[in-house]
Amino acid sequence: MPNDTDLYEKLTNSERLFEGKIINLRRDEVILPNGRTGMREVVEHPGAVAIVPLTTEGNVILVRQFRHPIGQVILEVPAGKLDSGEDPAACAVRELAEETGFTANTLRKLTSMYTTPGFSNEIIHVYLAEDLIESDKHPDEDEFINTEIYTPEQIHQMIISGELCDAKSLVALCLAGI
Amino acid sequence: MPNDTDLYEKLTNSERLFEGKIINLRRDEVILPNGRTGMREVVEHPGAVAIVPLTTEGNVILVRQFRHPIGQVILEVPAGKLDSGEDPAACAVRELAEETGFTANTLRKLTSMYTTPGFSNEIIHVYLAEDLIESDKHPDEDEFINTEIYTPEQIHQMIISGELCDAKSLVALCLAGI
Q: What is the DSSP letter of B82?
């Protein structure tokens, strides 16, 4: 294990700038490893889950939705934010049902990852969902989502073409072995 | 191609909340597909590149650094923000040299992806860098980075164990075929 002690920064001040519906923003003052002062902008996020729902035929359920920050409709794996204090696995079951209408009898954790550790603390817990049972989907009132099913070959092609361009989805599909 | 027109939101107002060193924050009011009004918090980011530097031996150069938002030292592929108007490929060459001291004679684009399309417009352009030539590294004055070289087997193990937990790095290593 390499020596990391030469890399750490020490927090000396923190200014809260914004408290939002989904994210908060703060600006921290830190002492850098060379003793100088630096400023770090931090987006606070509650954390999230992403799910690869695999059908018995070996196909994957993806969701298509408009993402306002990028002004585009894109394809992603089902995903959603953690409610306060919510267990990530329970969140994965809930979000899968809300966005796709499917319940999973088998849920396997693939990894947990930071999406943007340079400016945010968002962590996404990634799951593979199998043995799916269909029921009704019931998205949040401000979510508008189309559900679509793709074969592994179609997914490979959309990764190569760049149509699949959402980082969490790329990680999730890769770690699921799709 | 499915019909996306039922998914789009229409911008009706935008409030600028913060202009920072790295990110800006705004809050937009939108008309949702059902005609109701919604609020969207948007973190504006200049975009970035991530690079998988592959040595002639088939090993990968990773960087270890402290990430203040998550309070941890983590391993990542070399990466960095685009300067204003900068070509992504030129940025990849520059960041690779700054963070690792290596220049690449062969650079291949792997994909472009959105890290967090739910709350930010950050796009990361991902490159594979080969035919490396070593020179001096010269990180930014507020960057403190250790450079380390790993075999593909070590990287697989760190993906399975969760030690490699940075989303852009996981995508980049996967698409590079590591």
A: P
Q: Which of B95, B88, B102 is nearest to B134 (CA)?
A: B102
Query: Is A141 in the active site?
Result: yes
Binary contact (A41, B27; C-beta < 8 A): no
Model pLDDT for residues B119-178, shown as the tens digit of each residue: 999 999 999 999 999 887 777 777 899 999 999 999 999 999 999 999 999 999 999 999
The C-alpha atoms of residue A93 and residue A109 are separated, in whole angstroms, by 12
Q: Which residues of A touch B121 (CB under 8 A)?
A: 69-70
Judge contact between A32 and A8, C-beta under 8 A: no
Measure Cα distances from B159 to A68, A143, A169, A176 in Å.
31, 32, 16, 12
DSSP B68: T
CATH fold of B48-175, please? Nucleoside Triphosphate Pyrophosphohydrolase (3.90.79)
Nearest one of A102, A111, A91, A116 to A167, comparing CA atoms: A116
**Domain limits, chain B:** 10-44, 48-175
Number of H helices, E strands in chain B: 3, 10
Q: Which among A25, A38, A117 is the nearest to B70, CB-wise? A: A117
Q: How far apart are CA A144 and CA A138, in angstroms?
A: 10
DSSP per residue, A94-160: HHHHHHHSEEEEEEEEEEEEES-TTTB--EEEEEEEEEEEE------TT--EEEEEE-HHHHHHHHH
The answer to whether A140 faces chain B, any CB pair under 8 Å, is no
| pTM reported for the whole predicted model | 0.96
ipTM of this complex: 0.95
